[in-house]
Amino acid sequence: MIGQEHEGTEVLCLDVDEDTDADTLCAELLGPWSPTMIALRRGGRHVTELAPLHLRDRSHQEGERPDGVHLITGGLGGLGLAVARHLSRTVPGIRLALVSRGAPDPRDERDETAAEDPRRHRQVTALRELEDLGARVRCYRADVADEAAMADVVRAVRADLGRIACVIHAAGVAGDGFLFRKDAGTFRATLAPKVLGATVLDLVTADDPPQLMVCFGSTTSVFGVAGQGDYTAANTYLDHFADHRTALGRRTVTVDWTDWLDTGMAFDHGVRRDQGFFRSISVEDGLGSLDEILAAPRSPVVVGEINYGMLGSVDPDLLAAQLRRAPLVLEESVRQRVAGAGGEPRRAPAEDAPAGPAPDEGVTLLGREDGGYSETEHQVARIWARELGLDRLNVHESAFSLGGDSLVALRMAQSIQKTMAVRVSMVDLFRYVTIADLAAHLDSKKSHG
Ligand SMILES: NC(=O)c1ccc[n+]([C@@H]2O[C@H](COP(=O)([O-])OP(=O)(O)OC[C@H]3O[C@@H](n4cnc5c(N)ncnc54)[C@H](OP(=O)(O)O)[C@@H]3O)[C@@H](O)[C@H]2O)c1
């Protein structure tokens, strides 16, 4: 992420062992640095490849689907409840243990805050629905990163519901902010539920390991997302945690989800659909894929479809440069399609996606009481409006809190260059994240020639 957030800084992650000799190391350091994560082990060179996998093609080994109590961390969150509902529908009489740091059980009528809090109200409604579907559901309050608290939870679950057959680790918090201004507390808070949480879950169930542990990771670990260094690190850890734990004989899968539509943290943060390298996924498709993964675990697996429509709108040279800096390589057939996407027309927005204003349509600017905005602010706003699909913009709001990511930033940089004839780097876009700041920066660049 340092390389993505600081243009001009190249970062290579070389994982070496004691067999790596100086010549091999020098060859890597002097080489093209593509991909940017390489492992050199026992004379071999290992890189990660993104390759198509059809889950319905059952040529790989199938496992036995876990049968018994399902413990879901983050169980009262968007995806946690969607999974709980799906399991309740498909596995009659399933026993579910839902863990989160919130109230012990949002159904507890003694807790008077529940009635006033819409999130808690939604949780209560969902829990009642699970019971109506015939599930036995218990809620437990704990921080998944707290080993002592989680040991207590596991003891309580076994006493209340029985043996734990499957752990679905869906606890997580979204990261926020570029590394150069992120404080340690924010970084730790984002890493804790995933990094410590996965490790704690393994430790506290070690005396009777579940048949399967499924960790909810994210496609951020595939290419990273600028401004999400902590979240990217946390999810990358989960990818490798699954490999490591499986190698120790305890079956573990990490699913790298793309943005879910209609529920969960991407939905709550207003992330616009189909904005990244992978297209967004419907709840129904997400749950269907989870079923396939539970039946025939593969890890790490990305669930999603490559967003060729969006890639087609990015300058092919810039896209190729981005991909060269990626931590992985694309399998040949994927690489060819991505390279060919440059010539494809951009996919029309789906019916329910907010339609962006046409390039020269007016955009309402907000944020100043006197209503005075400079011409540069209007120009920048038109570009943002088109890329973010909005027609009202506050000049003091960050593009990234409105759903922008590195691909959106890349296209913004191109548009600014094309329409305003000023050269801006990705670093500029990540440093000047509001319309007001970016416009001031562009004006000062123009005045300095
Ligand atoms: N939604 C998406 O589009 C998407 C895409 C990619 C990956 N994912 C991953 O899928 C998982 C579920 O996400 P979501 O969308 O359902 O998010 P969500 O609605 O925000 O739910 C996450 C849940 O995790 C719980 N949690 C956070 N930290 C915890 C901790 N230390 N201990 C115990 N519980 C904790 C939160 O509850 P409390 O705050 O009450 O503890 C919350 O209920 C996450 O790991 C996320 O990274 C989601």
Determine the structural class based on helices, strands and strand pairing: alpha/beta
**Low-pLDDT runs:** 343-360
Report on the biggest sheet: 7 strands, parallel
Strand order of the largest sheet: 7-6-5-8-9-10-11
Radius of gyration, whole Å:
24 Å
| Share in β-strands | 5-15%
Distance separating the two termini: 31 Å
**What do the pLDDT scores average to?**
86
Q: Quick one: overall form?
A: globular
> What molecules are bound to this protein?
NADP nicotinamide-adenine-dinucleotide phosphate
Count of distinct strands = 14
Proportion in helices: 40-55%
Helices, by number, come to 18
Relevant terms:
three-stranded mixed beta sheet; alpha/beta; binds NADP nicotinamide-adenine-dinucleotide phosphate; globular
